[in-house]
Design goal:
This protein is mainly alpha-helical. The chain has 9 helices and no strands. Helix 2 runs antiparallel to helix 3 and helix 3 packs across helix 4. The chain is globular.
C-alpha cells in the first residue's frame, strides 16, 4: 500500500523536493535537519569512524537530492532514506574488503570524539555516574558491532530510526516474518553478551 503525504509529513517534504523550485531547497533543508543525527548514528554503527560517518551521511543526502526526480512515495521517507544509507554502507564495506589497508587507522568505538559519545554526553543528567553509564554504553556498542549485519541494522533502525517492523523489512529486503526473526535473534545475542554488565541481565533493544 502506497504511503501518501497525509500519512507521513516527511514524504510530503520529499515530494516538494521532487517538484523542484525554491520550495525544494526549503523542504530538503527541513529533511536534513530532521534526519541528520539519526542517519549519522545509523552509519556509525556500520562504519565506526566519526568523521567518515558524517561524510557518508552527507553522501546519502546528496544521493537523495540528486535522485529526487525519481522518488516514488511507496513507503515512508524514513524507509527510503535508510535504504539508501544501508546500500551506501554496504558498498563502502565491500570497497574496504578489497582495500583493507585504507581502514587500518580508523578510530575505535571507544574514541571520546565519536558522534555517539557526544550524543550520550548531551543526555547525561549529571556527571556523577557518567563513567559507569559510558562503560555500559561502550559495551552495548561493542556487542552491536559483533552482530551480523542484518541483525545489527534491524536493531539500530528499531532503536535509532524508530522504524516499524514492516519498514525495517523493506529496508532489509526481507519478509516481515523473517525480519521479526532477525530482530529476535539479534536481541537474544545482545542479552547474552551484555548480561555480565547489566544489573538485571535484560536489555530489550529499544
Amino acid at each position: 500500500m502506497a504511503v501518501t503525504p497525509s500519512h507521513d509529513p516527511d514524504t510530503d517534504l520529499m515530494l516538494r523536493v521532487k517538484r523542484g523550485g525554491r520550495e525544494a531547497h526549503e523542504a530538503f533543508a527541513a529533511l536534513v535537519e530532521r534526519w541528520q543525527q539519526p542517519l549519522i548514528s545509523f552509519v556509525y554503527r556500520t562504519l565506526p569512524d566519526g568523521a567518515e560517518a558524517e561524510d557518508l551521511a552527507q553522501a546519502v543526502f546528496l544521493q537523495v537530492w540528486k535522485t529526487a526526480d525519481r522518488y516514488q512515495p511507496s513507503a515512508k521517507f524514513s524507509t527510503f532514506l535508510f535504504t539508501v544509507a544501508r546500500n551506501l554502507c554496504l558498498n563502502e564495506l565491500r570497497r574496504r574488503s578489497r582495500h583493507p589497508a585504507d581502514s587500518l587507522d580508523e578510530p575505535r568505538a571507544e574514541d571520546d570524539q565519536h558522534p555517539l559519545r557526544q550524543i550520550e554526553d548531551a543526555r547525561q543528567p549529571s556527571a556523577a555516574d557518567s563513567a559507569q553509564q559510558f562503560e555500559i554504553f561502550a559495551k552495548v556498542e561493542a556487542a552491536l558491532a559483533e552482530l551480523p549485519e542484518k541483525q545489527r541494522t534491524a536493531i539500530v533502525l528499531c532503536r535509532e530510526g524508530e522504524l516499524s517492523y514492516e519498514e525495517i523489512a523493506e529496508v532489509l529486503g526481507t519478509s516481515l516474518q523473517a525480519t521479526k526473526s532477525i530482530i529476535h535473534r539479534g536481541r537474544e545475542l545482545l542479552k547474552a553478551r551484555l548480561k555480565p554488565y547489566l544489573r538485571t541481565g535484560e536489555w530489550d533493544g529499544h
